[in-house]
Amino acid sequence: MVDTIVASDTIIHVTRTIVAEGLRPGATAPSADPYAPIIADFRAAMTMLKCASSERVLRLGISMAQLHILYTLQRSGEMPMSRLAELLNVSLSNATGLIDRIEERGYVERTRVPEDRRIVKIRVTPAGSRMLDEIDALSDDLLRSVLGRLDRSKLGGVAQAAAALRSTLEVTTGGDPLDRHPASIPSPRSSSTLRGVEHSANQPPARKD
User: Fold this and answer.
1) Would you list the domain boundaries of the chain?
2) Which of 129, 141, 185, 197 is the most exposed, fewest CB within 10 Å of its CB?
3) Is the per-residue pLDDT at 48 higher than 60?
4) Phi, psi for 197 (deg, rounded to 5)
5) How do residues 179-191 score in pLDDT, each as one tens digit?
6) Beta bridge partners of 116
7) What CATH number has the domain spanning 2-201?
8) What is the pTM of this model?
9) CB under 8 Å to 118, separation ≥6 — which residues?
10) What is the 3-state secondary structure (H, E, C) of 36-62?
């Protein structure tokens, strides 16, 4: 667990350094594109929020790959292992390995269909739901802390801009307005990427000679 946290903290530190470099004056050339500065600020803000959120998630002993799976199950409900692998864009064996590790923590459980015992379904346990609620609360607290630092006169403009952006995203992507998680978690990735996330998180930190 300590090795996981150290390795992940290193990744977060490097990401923050990259973001900081990008925010330095003169780091990017002026653009005639009116959307460019908005996109740049949005990306930088989202990256910093993800870094801060990742640190809090790591304290719970959950990797981002495992969190992605839990949110997928929470949104879509109980599903066969084969369907979960399809949604994650990984092989069945990789999905099984990821679920094994989450099941050990008591956050998911396997059930078999009575009519066909060969079919294994996966669902989030009450403990898993409580953990996701805790992560949501941590994210809300972080955002409240950020918003609390803004001048109150600017909150109205931030609220209007956020609402406009969300409604436009829903129209553009066909997203569910009741689903609060799609933008806060990684999109489905290749099996090699998911394996890499799990592998790097479990590697011991490099020795310093």
Assistant:
1) 2-201
2) 141
3) yes
4) -65, -50
5) 444 433 333 334 4
6) 113
7) 1.10.10.10
8) 0.59
9) 112
10) HHHHHHHHHHHHHHHHHHHHHHHHCCC
